[in-house]
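S1.2 Input.
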Amino acid sequence: MAGAYIVEAMRYSLAAVLIAIPLVASADFVATQLSDDGPMKAWFEPDATVILPATATTGALPPDKLDSFTNMEYGSMGPFKVGRSITGKRGDATWYLADVKQAWAISVDCPPALARCHHSRTLRLSELVVGDKAVAVHVDDPVPGTTTASPVAADPIAGTTEAGPLAKLLVDPAAIAQTLLDDKTTFVLGTEVGEKAVGTAAAKKLLGTWSKLSLALEGKPREVTKGSWGYVAANVGWTVKAKKTVIRATLYAVQVDGAWKVAGVHYSLPVHRMGY
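S1.3 Output.
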């Protein structure tokens, strides 16, 4: 987010999306769950907010998105591999952060023996789970280097609400830093591959590099607070040198002694790169 305003040429002809990972499973079991529509849908609350590299939705996931996740018209998807992950918990809420490697092979005019027929990318997943159901999920394909602008328009946030105290934090990195939960699993993700901080001290340091960013809510957010937990999902306008890019943002929070504390925040560009 702190880099230069550069638009990267991207290709979008293959569609594949990633659905939320169940917290209670091991990495191997997680990969198994990702292979079938039924188990995937079973991990969501009916009105969960789901942000994927190419779409955003609230409530029932569109059938075409699930189909494009499990099938490729011109190739085959390999199993998802869950890498480095963290899990934090406070009260009824559990937050989760993981790197997930996605691999696929092209089958049209591309012999399996050729390296150029095989591709992979590492996605970042964050989610908030209450009980055994995901209430908010954000998956992104982080931008390499200092590529910080997207030619893709962000989907509008569904099921919007009035902006509350959590939405206001999304556009104020300094306020997020002051409100961070003091916990080793607190995290901040920016739009670039290297913008990842875990732990309160590291998160504050990364947020400090964004102190001069010009951010504003783009349309209404979806802010949900229930008891001791809450989250907000929104499109955020980011203006650099009079040019605006709309980025995705989610923030997960818990209440500590009656005050909201940020357990995690995740910013991303609405892009879907397949790496070929």
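S1.4 Remarks. The chain has a mean pLDDT of 79.
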